[in-house]
Design brief:
CATH architecture of the largest domain: 3-Layer(bba) Sandwich
CATH topology of the largest domain: FAD/NAD(P)-binding domain
Radius of gyration: 22 Å
Mean pLDDT: 95
Largest sheet: 8 strands, mixed
Number of helices: 12
Distance between the termini: 31 Å
Structural class: alpha/beta
Helix content: 25-40%
Shape: globular
Oligomer: single chain
CATH class of the largest domain: Alpha Beta
CATH superfamily of the largest domain: FAD/NAD(P)-binding domain
């Protein structure tokens, strides 16, 4: 099989697949799909390769076991280790992590972009806001109607109102067809979420000559001087994840879009960057949650999965409501097996859930070919504790009878005095249950190769025709959910590459 427009899978390839195109993109997540859209609209032939498979809404199952095995990177087992441990979620398949995110769609904060211009010379002439506008319009970002919000979101809003606190609002989301089934993190079964494959990739396929090759893992490169001439890899069986053949592509230009783990590791493995910053400056947006027993039925797994948020960005964190399936609730409870845990699980229908997402200021983390390592910063730890205290205040204002804090050994707490006693400033990080869904950095942009891996257009220093377009390009953490910024970066890189090919 040679290059062909449309969607293709391992069953189409035979033992070997040869492709020739203008631009090869490795990774079909938020950045890769947006870059493909930009290039297709400019008239270039694009080949998009993805290790995972194509997904239709009817393929997904409301099962954590199914999702971890089929839709999550590393089958849901990716963990950062250091002065504690932290699971790191990511998607696998055409659509990348947008397959399993909650569709939260924030613009890049203006203050952050201004800082990037000052500190990293992030293209002062670039009208990045125009790319953000295009993303918001393509994703049809808006607030979902109240009839699908669910009680978990509205009761947190009521707590904010009773406290008289400002900054709360219902989430901007890229889910114009949301029906409130509450399983965004397992793959959207209704098709109501506009993941990258259903938005930018669909736009790319309509605009021009785009071939999307699922089940293709990239492994190596061929080069001449400062140019990449070909990429090769293995065809993967979508069930066993074992190689069944080989593939190769010849392209005028190559864009890596493997995310903050895949892109640096590909560069490392193939010796494509000598930067001492490669794999470093990983930002994780650590997050954690609080369960609250309310005096009414909540069923927090019903309704918009993350529908309400509170802006405390200037203080280093956001508060966001969240959902878990009932089985995941049992796993997430930091309680010992026994009577107390059984009592809380018996109250499950009346539990509400919300959490805190930390900006990530002083945690040091890095990616290597062998793992992910971090030292959780003391400032981030204190911010996390302040954020959890704020979440607790909102829940008690909303009428909570008790809380389950994400701190080992804290047990059930029934008032703010107990909360403050358990969330005091000296609580060590290893006692706090955290997770991450927003890895960023590791191939950061900059104006100087001495302090960055990429130039401000995402080009790998030292190469004429190799760019990166994903969250690894970010020089700093965003402090907000990143999909909109990743897509805007994909558009930026895609148009930059198109300009070069046109010139």
């Amino acid at each position: 099989m040679t290059w062909r427009h449309g969607k293709h899978s391992s069953a189409d390839y035979g033992e070997h697949l040869d492709v020739e195109c203008d631009v090869a993109i490795l990774g079909a997540g938020a950045g890769g799909c947006a870059a493909a859209s930009a290039l297709a609209q400019r008239g270039f032939r694009v080949a998009l390769f993805e290790e995972g498979k194509h997904w239709n809404p009817g393929d997904f199952k409301a099962s954590n076991a199914f999702a971890f095995r089929h839709v999550y990177a590393e089958r849901g087992n990716r963990v950062a280790v250091g002065n504690g441990w932290m699971p790191i979620n990511g998607g696998r398949g055409v659509g990348g992590s947008t397959l399993i995110n909650s569709a939260i769609s924030f613009r890049t904060p203006d203050a952050l972009l201004e800082g990037w211009r000052e500190r990293y010379d992030f293209d002062p002439e670039l009208n990045f806001s125009a790319y953000l506008d295009e993303v918001m319009a393509t994703l049809r970002v808006g607030v979902d109607p109240m009839q699908v919000q669910g009680r978990n979101n509205t009761i947190f809003a009521e707590g904010m109102e009773k406290l008289g606190w400002s900054g709360g609002a219902f989430m901007p989301r890229s889910a114009p067809g949301c029906v409130g089934c509450g399983v965004c993190q397992l793959g959207c079964p209704s098709g109501g979420k506009w993941s990258a494959d259903r938005s930018f990739l669909a736009k790319a396929l309509l605009a021009g000559e785009v071939g999307v090759y699922a089940d293709c893992r990239a492994s190596g490169v061929t080069s001449e001087g400062s140019r990449i001439t070909a990429i090769h890899g293995e065809i993967m069986d979508p069930q066993s994840q074992e190689p069944t053949g080989t593939w190769s592509v010849k392209a005028k230009h190559v864009i890596l879009s493997g995310g903050s783990f895949g892109s640096p590791r590909f560069l490392m493995k193939n010796g494509l960057s000598e930067s001492e910053h490669l794999g470093h400056h990983l930002r994780l947006h650590p997050a954690t949650g609080v369960f609250a027993k309310m005096p009414e039925v909540i069923e927090h797994w019903r309704g918009v999965s993350q529908g309400y948020w509170v802006d405390r960005w200037e203080e280093g964190f956001l508060m966001e409501t969240a959902t878990l399936t009932p089985d995941a609730n049992f796993i997430a409870m930091p309680l010992e097996f026994g009577e107390e845990l059984n009592r809380v699980m018996a109250d499950l229908p009346m539990l509400a859930l919300a959490g805190v997402l930390v900006h990530d200021e002083d945690t040091e983390a890095r990616v290597t070919e062998d793992g992910v390592f971090f030292e959780f910063g003391d400032g981030d730890r204190k911010t996390l504790l302040r954020g959890l205290t704020a979440v607790a205040e909102v829940f008690f204002a909303a009428g909570a009878e008790y809380l389950v804090l994400p701190v080992a050994g804290a047990g059930l707490v029934r008032d703010m005095d107990q909360v403050r006693a358990e969330l005091h400033e000296e609580v060590p990080f290893h006692r706090i249950m955290t997770t991450s869904s927003h890895p960023m950095g590791t191939c950061r942009i900059g104006a100087d190769p001495a302090s960055s891996v990429l130039d401000v257009h995402g080009r790998v220093w030292g190469w004429d025709n190799l760019n990166v377009a994903d969250a690894s390009t970010f020089p700093e953490a965003l402090g907000v959910n990143p999909q909109v910024t990743v897509m805007a970066m994909g558009l930026h890189v895609g148009h930059t590459v198109a300009d070069g090919l046109s010139g």
